[in-house]
User: What shape does this take?
Amino acid sequence: MKIKLMMVGAFICMVFLETAAQEKELTVKMVTEQLHHRYEMIDDAVVQFEQHVKFGFSNIEQNFSGILKMKKPKHYRIESEHQTIVTDGMTVWAYSSANNQVIVDKYKENSNSISPEQFMLNLPANYYASLLGTEKQAAGNMVLLKLIPKDDRSFVKSVKISVEESGWLLRKIEIMDVNETETTYTVKDIKLNTNIKDKIFTFEAPEGAEVVDLR
Assistant: This one.
């Protein structure tokens, strides 16, 4: 459950890298400051995304699409084709439609997690960040930023972010974990500050579903 939350948090955090264009030379310090400033302006978000996973030991690849909804503080709901994960900041529900099973646990967050709060506010303290340069893609020039956790016990080994240079809109995040599994999230659409209601951040088990409570 904890690992799943870290990976979800990793995706959630990256969708807010949309900042005002700057005329001066791009630096890591500028990017982290703009991240913090931009996150302070966001109350909630709805994001459509595509996810690609390549498992390190087997080289098996999987593709998913889904939708993420988040609201400050620590309210997340991510729905994909096979799984729904919901938290209200205190409790986490993970529902598998294939198994018709709901796993319930306490919400846990620590300095190694990369939820929006930790990533946006503590990036300079918790990560080594470096600019990798620019790359031409179909959507335009991309600025590439690489993050390495300072804590060598982190489940995530590295994160690479691709940001559209024209308008500073994030297009993609690539995560490498300690099992050499690569997870790539691509944002297809994002809507900010839509006044999402709190009730969507709780979960009722479908009729007949098995409920495993780990609290």
